[in-house]
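Sample 1 of the test manifest.
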Amino acid sequence: METVTLTIDGRPVTVEKGRTVLQAAIEAGISVPYYCYHPGISIDGSCRVCIVKIEKMPKLQTSCSTVCTEGMVVSTRDAETVAARAGVFEFLLVNHPLDCPVCDKGGECPLQDFSYTFGPADSRMDFPRRTFDGEGVKADVDFGPTLMLNRNRCILCTRCVRFMKEIDTDAQIGVVDRGCGSEIATFQEHGVHSLLSGNLMDVCPVGAITTRDYRFKSRPWDNPTVVDTTCTLCSKGCSTSAWLKAKPEWAKGSQLIRMTPRFNPDVNGYWMCDIGRFNYHWIESETRLRRPMIRTAAGLEKVGWHDAEPRLRDKIQEAAAADPDAVRFIVSAHAATEELFVLKQMVQGLLGADGLKSVSMAWTRSEKPQPPNAKFKIPAANAPNVNGARDLGFMVGQGNDGPAPDLAELKAAVEAGRVKAVYVLDPGPDGSIGDLSWLVEARRTGKLSLLAVQGVVMTPHAAAADVVLPGYAFVEKDALFTNDQGQVQSASLAIVAPAEAREDCLILAGLARALGLDIAYQTSDEVRRALGGAMPGTAYAGAGTVVFTRPVPAASWLQASNPSERWKWDFMFQDLPPVKGHNVQLEGLAREGAGPNYIPLRQVDK
Amino acid sequence: MAYEPVLTRHVGDQDAYTLDAYVAKQRGYEGLRKALTQKPGEIIDLVKASGLRGRGGAGFPTGLKWQFVLKDTPKPKYICCNADESEPGTFKDHVLMERNPHLLIEGCAIACYAIGAKVAYIYIRGEFYHVQQVLEAEIEKAYKAGFLGKNIFGSGFDCDVFVHRGAGAYEAGEETALIESLEGKRAQPRIKPPFPAVAGLYQCPTAVNNVETLCNVPLIMMNGPEWFTALGPEKNGGPKLYCISGHVKRPGVYEASMHTTLRELIYGEQFAGGMIDEHPFKAIIPGGSSVPLLLDKDLDTPASFDDVQKAGSLLGSAGLIVLNDTVCMVWLAKNLLYFYRHESCGKCTPCREGGDWLFKLLTRIEQGEGQAKDIDLLFGVASNIAGKTLCAFGDAAATPVLTTLKLFRHEFEAHVREGRCTIPAEWRARQPMLAGHH
């Protein structure tokens, strides 16, 4: 790597050639504020708060647009820079409503944080503030199905404009009008219609763009913990962070409150899609399965595991007694690799080497409506672990690239009465396993003697089942998923599963034991160690030593655990010494140019 | 020695704009013919030797600008003629384009040949609809006569000239904003570097030149660089058009050498003919609304790029706005800020927010509702804009405030002290009101 060395505030800083002064400062931990700069999109140079003094240059330069050269001498703390920067901050707040107490961004707002650190202590503006769509709550206007827009808060950094133009490649957002009347808008106020719209909330450095999903639901200080995890709603496997809101003291525990993308250059860059961002409510929904259930004359009845497991064992053994092939498994590709591994051991233990034939993998596929050249593409396969199943030897057809399986062979066998018992493993959201209405019908008409469902939420097939076993959703367990590029990624335990739900791989291990097999896993760690041992020389060899992240306090997460997030949160929770005294310097500069008649502000006031 | 106009000598003739008259009276397209017998590099050297400086405002040497245009590139190159002419007080390019269009067309063709371009775009101000009509008709004639198009004069050189009419933004006169606008985007300036010479129109090497600049090019080709330099003071050679407006007897466009002083331009009988209405001279904005004021003591300054700069202002686009003593300087600043506030493109924070703030402060002071601290605040806000923006617009918007404060601070103080405008009511009545702001 070719490098250049420059001096920033007297410190030698060495960076990769081609980096800008702002990037060098961020890398070196030197605080320079910025709004229009975002590492994922092009450089605009318009907000002007990142100005620094560079020796041999006549004017102050925007550090975001100045490329480092060898021997460059940069100053971010001299009187001229401090005064000029404070002046820009004063301008930024001239028309900003300062409704921070009711603003969603308040507490994690770069405009707040930077203004406190670099801005003047007070504003000299005494005219009414400019408003666009009214004041207060009226100022919030629809900005498409997922977003709200408050133009009064906007500081026109145009990150949203550039995101839509460069990443989404459908430039739905533009700036209309000119000068101090400039406003962010979409054509005829249609709003943003994009599967990447949630990212606009992330790139917005103020509370101008907020998501309907999160707004008014929480404040940053109510989200004390955060967990780095992996999204499992499609085959891409974006790195994400799960934010946990503390429940009231009397309720204890925490609640999943939002998902945000986490920088991963190999998978998702800085972004994630709206599906992964907003589709988490099913995990803690009313339809969540909390206890095992068995079918009685009165319908599904909640029971303990000690009742459910023997019933399940007996029914399976009964069906298998006449014909071992009469027991079949439908497994969602939402199942983690651990679960697939235990299942594989179980079916091979029961049926011999070709036991995997009894398992049908299932997932859905949908082409996402995106512009053809979008820089962030959402895959069609709506399951996270098709490649994991393939790697373990399950039949997945063409995998992520091919059509979703149609289970026609199994369906025919069920309808012909050759299959008596079906065990469904469905740890994804409702519908993610595909259409199983034919299975429900087969159970209703008595063609099946057993329909067992292991899952997370009440689905039509769970409602029709004889035995329902509550498993863990992906944020409730440590688990491995293999994305469409073949990367083995870990999703971490973020929230505690409710009531008597049990970790999926251990449910399967318990069933295997009940069926007389010697599968004695007590934790998923043991499963991963066995997985690693069973697949040496593959990407899974190190499965036993994968380190899963744990919920950490948001403050330390922001500071330390996550260098890749620094672009966004660099200054949150940091105790930067505020740059004081800039007002004095401002007046000093003013006095120099003002001539002998200059009267300092404070004296005039007296 | 009386100065003989060369750019505008025939503009008064009824047929001045026609191709026939141009060829007959001004040895039309001979410069291009001569240029095509030489190597492009030689033409750049000629223009460099002439010392021709950009007439749009900055006074940057044109030959140097052409030399910077990237040579070793597979991309096409472009000439963009900046005919946006939107600086208040400036109306010289208008005359050239309407009355002597072929001079510009020939200049465009020579410039294209010099930098290796095949296409020139004339970005004309949105309001110049009728000028566009003339220009396009004459371009059509030039094509028919073989002065434009394929294989001009059998030299193998192809050149197309297109006219693009802007949509009416002052900011589109900034060279990178002009390029953005030409590409169909909002007229907002780009970050420099890269400069247009490296990545301009469609990210291709581009030279952006003012109309008057390009009109000088055929003259240099025909008469040689020595003739051109001899017309004016050192480093300020060639003919210059001055747009004189304001309280003078005969406002208008005057051609002169840059030896001519500001006083001659205002009082000279062959120029503006002196002040109107017996009211004495108060101040002059010598280079379009964006430059600092000069006073009577500065009027013996020759109206050249370097001398006006030495006097503390800029020649800019040579739009001389002459003001007599009926003008309230607070009103002047407010009037100009009304323009700059309205025309700020809104990209950079200081200019977007500060322009509006300045206008509000000036309105308050002008209406007699200001406080003493507002005067300091004006200075503080203007200083915070100047030099903090991407393009020169920020400086331009701050200048009217800073210069009036510097030279006429007592008028601001009087407004605050008396609580009203302090010039006589009948003088004040002459000042045009701003739409929606009385």
